[in-house]
Amino acid sequence: MSNIIIPRQLSIEEKYELMQDDAKYEVGSDSDAQNTAVLCASDIKSKPPVPKIPKMFLSSTCVFNCAYCGCRCSRREAHENYCNTPEELAKMAVYAAKTNGRGVFITSAIYKNADITQEMIAESVRIMREELYYTGFLHAKVMPGADPRLIANTGRYADRLSVNIEVARSSGYQKIAKQKNKDNILTPMGEVAKQIFGAKQEKTRFATSQTTQLMAGSTGEDDRTIMILTRALYKKYRLKRVYYTAFSYRHEAIGYEQENLRFIQTPYWRMARLYQADRLMQLYGFTPDDITPEEEPFLQQDIDPKAAWALRHLDMYPVEVNRADYDTLLRVPGFGLTYARRIIEARKYCRLTHNLLSRMKISLKKAQYFITCSGKYIGGSVLDSDLLRSCVATGLNQISITDALSADTTSGCGL
Ligand code: SF4
After folding, report:
1. What is the topology classification, in CATH, of domain 12-291?
2. CB neighbours of 157 closer than 8 A, spacing ≥ 6?
3. What is the distance in A from the centroid of ligand 1 to the CA of 61?
C-alpha cells in the first residue's frame, strides 16, 4: 500500500479563512496601519489586528524560511496549505473586493520560486481587469528578486505595488529572513520606482504608487536608524508610504535557534510613535535629526515626537500666533496642517485671541503652553519647568493616529 498522502481539496471558504490568518503578518493599506497603530501601550501580547482590506493569497506554501512568518517552509505547526490557479485567485479576489468595497491586496508566499509566483500574480491581476472587469483599487505584491518584465506585467494592471524591506539594517536579514538580502529586496524596489516614473513620463497605464513594510525591533535597532532608513526610502524610491509592524516571533523556527528571537517583543506603542514620526518627516518638514537626535535615538512612550522636539527647543517658545510663519506654527505641539492653515487664513481678517482660536474649533489643550495670542500667555508658569512634560504627555490610548495618518487629506491633525 502506498504511503503518499494526498492533500485534502479545500473549499473556497476554507481557503479564504486561511488567507485571512496568513494576512495578519502584513500591512496592506493606510486603514490597516491605523488599525495597528491605535493598539494601546501595553498591548504587546494581543493578536495582530484583522486587516481591513482583504488580502488574497496565491499560495501559502513558501520556499523561503523567514522566522516570523506562518508560511515559512520549516513550519512545523499543523497548517493546511493551498495554492490557487490565477483564475481561482482572480475570482475570489474580485468577490472579496466587491464585498469589502475598499479594494484588494493580491499577495503570495513564494511558490517554487520568485519568478513563477510573480508570473502567476501578473496573470491573476490581468484576469481581474481584462476578463472580470474589476475596476477598483488593486494592490499587488512584488516577490523578492522578481524579474523586471514580470514586475512590468503586474504593474500594468495594479494601482499599487510593494516589496517588503522587512528589516532596518541589512545585517538583519541573516537574523530573521535568511534567504532575503539587500539585493533581492532593493533591486525590485528600484525597478518598481523606475517603471512608475517611466509610465508617468510616457503616460501609459501602470501602478501609480509603491509602498513597503518594515518590522521594527527585530535587530534591536533604535528609532533613529529606522527614521534615517525611512527618509532614504522615501527619497530614493519615491515611496508613497512606509508601513511599520512590530516584530513578533510566534513559533520556534528551524534554522534560527541561535538568534534568541523569542526574547524580542516589540511593543505596539512603538508603531504608533513611528507612524507619528513618519508623518512629521513627510508632511511637516522634520528631519531624522529633529525627531531622533543622536543623544535621544528612541521615540518615547509617554510623549509624542513633536512635543518631545518642542521640549528640547523651549527657547523657540512661546510662539506669537499673529506673527509666526506657517512652518513655525507647524512646530507648535497640538497644531497640525489644518490648524496652521486656518490660523494663517484668519489672520488676514483679524487679530487672533485664545477665545477666537477656540471659536475657530482649534484645540488649545496642548498648544496653550507654547503660544501667545496678541502677547497674552495662558499656559501658567509651566514653560521652562519640568511640569511641562507631564502637561503635554499623551496617553497612548489617546493618540490620534487616525488624524496623523490622514493628515494630508483631512482636517484637524493634532500632532
Ligand atoms: S518570503 Fe514571505 S511568505 Fe515566504 S516565509 Fe518569508 S515572509 Fe513568509
Report:
1. TIM Barrel (3.20.20)
2. 122, 125, 126, 128, 129, 130, 138, 140
3. 9
